[in-house]
TrEMBL record, chain A:
Membrane topology: Multi-pass membrane protein
UniProt protein name: Spermidine/putrescine ABC transporter permease
Top-level taxon of the source organism: Bacteria
Location(s), subcellular: Cell membrane
PROSITE patterns in the record: ABC_TM1
The keyword Oxidoreductase appears for this protein: no
Automatic annotation (TrEMBL), chain B:
Keyword Signal in record: yes
Name used for this protein in its record: Spermidine/putrescine ABC transporter substrate-binding protein
Alphabetically ordered keywords of this record: Signal
Signal peptide: 1-17
PROSITE patterns, sorted: PROKAR_LIPOPROTEIN
Pfam families per record: SBP_bac_8
Amino acid sequence: MRRRLATFLHRHARVRLSLLLSAPLAWLGLAYLGALAALLVTAFWSTDTFTGNLIRTFTWANFEDLVTGEVYRTIALRSLGVAAAVTLIDLVVAFPMAFAMAKLASPRAQRWLVIAVLTPLWASYLVKAYAWRVLLSADGLLGWGYGLGATILTLSYLWLPYMILPIYAGLERLPNSLLDAAGDLGARGWRTFRTVVWPLAFPAVVAGSIFTFSLSLGDYITVKIVGGRSQLIGNVVYDNIGAANNLPFAAAVATVPVLIMLVYLAAVRRTGALENL
Amino acid sequence: MRSIPRMAAAVAALALAAACGSTETAAPAAPAPGVSGFTPPKIDALASLGAGEGQVNLVAWAGYVEDGSTDPKVDWVTEFESSTGCQVNTKTAGTSDEMVNLMKTGEYDAVSASGDASLRLIAAGDVAPVNTSLIPNYADVFPGLKDKPWNSVGGVSYGVPHGRGANLLMWRTDTVNPAPDSWGVVFDPASPYKGKVTAYDSPIYIADAAVYLMSTKPELGIKNPYALDDTQFQAAVDLLKQQRTIIGEYWSDYTKEIQAFKSGDSVVGTTWQVIANLATAEKAPIEVTLPKEGATGWSDTWMVAAAAKHPNCAYRWLDWIISPKANAQVAEWFGEAPSNSKSCAETADPKHCDTFHATDEDYFSKVYYWTTPIPQCLDGRTDVTCKDYAEWTRAWTEIKG
């Protein structure tokens, strides 16, 4: 029986393939894209303020409010700025760190450094955010106070490993011989970096930036903890679901980061970086 | 100095208070009785008490039904089970919306509903009137809590009051001088405490601004801080936008506020009694008061499902949870004023009722219990449309900018 099944599968490549792909495709289709589709559909509904029930009739009202409300534009731009700043800071911090890990450290030290980078991920997100709250408090170690700057700083800390690891992996694949060749041909450090290391590590940098950018764009807890009086897109979504029970409007707001990410991914694709991942 | 277990209990209670506090503002409610003329579906209350059904299914706020599993010392369910033979099954709900939805399933017998859920349940016919003559302990409930718009319709009671509390003004005694007696200190744009003022991070906080405007701008004619027409609402929103310039941070998490007051990041702002108690226990130099303008607050009600499968056990539970001892336990664990007048003699901390002003009707007459704003003005006006909670939420986003 088993043998016949094996023969059958061997002869029918398509059946074999469909069996292999059915689980991941079901996951992608139902759990992932399905949820996104549901979100998009909900955004065109409204809620009854008396009963709190969804009214399943098509309306553009949520998007009209979103587009005409000046406050939402401000918040979207602010969120975009925060995500960009976090990505930039993480890149500046992560690149030298990843380079040192991949090219300078001994294999033994390399392992320990990877563990050291990963360790903060084992601690709870909330604990780390509150630790920063204590650090930044008026009588804390840093005492810089709360606000947008504190949010950017805390997010940069939280997402740093997600930037270091892809760059580290990318740089590790970069043969040392290329660096030696550049040196032999007379290139100094900066020139080697600009013409050899950076172009080859760029896809890895893009991969890291996708993580830090999208994670920052969706965050609403850190800004609640250290953001003082500021708010980001995530808070608008949270307030509309958690407080107002207005799922449709929250869904409409939630399409904003989705759109931003699609634009970002499209831009990245044009650079050809995704093919090299 | 508190012992460690008591501190742990207090922290847990705070967590619960925070969890519920932030959610009691959750859902749109039905109009107040007699205001926009809503008539609840005709459902008969239980006429007489029969034998217990052996179990009862409850929907409750976290901390309202404790059987010792959270803390072995916190248990008012086990004794109920052994004395009535009713096994208690609890479903903890995080928001008023969740409570309303759970009650719609018909699987549950009773619910601890807040002011923004109770009327929705009544209007939808999900809960039945309660025959209070079958609940002996009801006689001892503070008169100030009986027959209120959020627990009764047309003189018919739909539940028994569980407990209540007020949102207070807290300040650090070492920096704020003189001691404030008005919300003005958190609304004054020229405040000397600029950058260290805190406010509650929820759209329902607009009502706090409305309460302040009731006495400072009587020409606006605000009668109920949850019933605001366009002009009144705009005035409250403008006041809050102006307040934003002096705000250090908004809080919705109790630990955040305690820590901010301890470190001095916040020196004045709105709070709950439990937060003040815990901050004091952590040696923060703070004081609280109910400002002269009054304040917002909350009041919860236990209700029985219209389709209850275990009505007799549900009635026994309602009687039990407002019995002096159990009501004292839950009030202390949660950090609020009990609803039973005899509970004050039963609290572990003999001063609990004083701290939470349980017997002080004068204190609570200045408290406007959280109600969810709806288009039909809750203060009885029919010539204007009031702003509903969805609009409050959007305005809150705009206020924070």
